[in-house]
């Protein structure tokens, strides 16, 4: 993975998100999908999925072929603007559709794709991602390339769309997906659940969780200009008590982050607790998915709950324009853990920063956090050093300017994308009043040099 062309903070890069060398083949610059309408039928016992995806898109270039990502599932019928295309082919994780006539630049077009198969995860640099069967149900971990395991998509964080997701599964199971539940009906042995996502969402943040879940309302938040946000947990009935205890600070966490980062970006928030233990929790837009092992009162569980929640602001609403900028998700969410620690009296952010710095100082200094390369983009050092970079900014400009910058970043880039250069530029504006402050000088050593800078005092 070439790391020679990364953007220095503050310097305007060419800002071309695609093609993305971190996820070759995923994401196409030639068109944007405005809306996905997915209708899915799932048979749990046989792990069978049949789907119909309708995509409303606009061509950015003249398109002779429309390329989508679809992994492990077979497209059975494709239509472009209601007509049979000249050619459809599928190879590896690509579905290539050649319309009978090229689509002109700027033209809107509709795709309808029927597809089916036995969905399964894809294996790659980051282990298995995507559709995953649980002991009794299913989940989808979309990051970074798991989305095509359950629907055809323009698979890149820079490609945000609205969604409608309708899924029918066995009766007695609850289907949880992103956004607002807008419909539910039961017919014989099948139940159908419909969700709408009105805020633009990157495909990797779309998810489907199916299981025997009971919904609990954890509370409602109305804080700091946020519209009222309903906070739910979806839990297996046997874990109800443990979940109520383990998740009892979620509402306070939202209140704190809304105060520090700006209004909660969505209408509701649901923590899904799976009956299986999970190695790591997963973020999705308006949802977090945690394992039964993540709802203890220990700091390690609570920090992860804070971390996943913080991704609603940084990751889901403000999304990295390229995977290279992943520290904008992970560094920020890790710093949110420390802010929660400070707020809840479990150790100041400075103490957490010092702990993280000590850990890092014992590790190899061979990573560029602002351009880690595909293999290391989820390396713990991206998280911790990213958080330390923010701590360094806070130390340099003071709390007032620092939190104003975070909130400005959250609001200016709300439901959009951002790069490191965008953040540095914003810091320059907000931090300009601090004597001698230069965002670029401050962030550069943390993000674009290998040697660990000294602990910010
Ligand atoms: Zn994270």
From TrEMBL:
<dbReference type="InterPro" id="IPR045357">
    <property type="entry name" value="Aminopeptidase_N-like_N"/>
</dbReference>
<dbReference type="InterPro" id="IPR027268">
    <property type="entry name" value="Peptidase_M4/M1_CTD_sf"/>
</dbReference>
<comment type="similarity">
    <text>Belongs to the peptidase M1 family.</text>
</comment>
<feature type="region of interest" description="Disordered">
    <location>
        <begin position="1"/>
        <end position="24"/>
    </location>
</feature>
<keyword id="KW-0378">Hydrolase</keyword>
<keyword id="KW-0479">Metal-binding</keyword>
<keyword id="KW-0862">Zinc</keyword>
<dbReference type="InterPro" id="IPR050344">
    <property type="entry name" value="Peptidase_M1_aminopeptidases"/>
</dbReference>
<keyword id="KW-0482">Metalloprotease</keyword>
<dbReference type="Pfam" id="PF17900">
    <property type="entry name" value="Peptidase_M1_N"/>
</dbReference>
<dbReference type="InterPro" id="IPR042097">
    <property type="entry name" value="Aminopeptidase_N-like_N_sf"/>
</dbReference>
<dbReference type="Pfam" id="PF01433">
    <property type="entry name" value="Peptidase_M1"/>
</dbReference>
<feature type="domain" description="Aminopeptidase N-like N-terminal">
    <location>
        <begin position="34"/>
        <end position="205"/>
    </location>
</feature>
<dbReference type="InterPro" id="IPR014782">
    <property type="entry name" value="Peptidase_M1_dom"/>
</dbReference>
<feature type="domain" description="Peptidase M1 membrane alanine aminopeptidase">
    <location>
        <begin position="250"/>
        <end position="429"/>
    </location>
</feature>
<dbReference type="InterPro" id="IPR001930">
    <property type="entry name" value="Peptidase_M1"/>
</dbReference>
<protein>
    <recommendedName>
        <fullName>Aminopeptidase N</fullName>
        <ecNumber>3.4.11.2</ecNumber>
    </recommendedName>
</protein>
<keyword id="KW-0645">Protease</keyword>
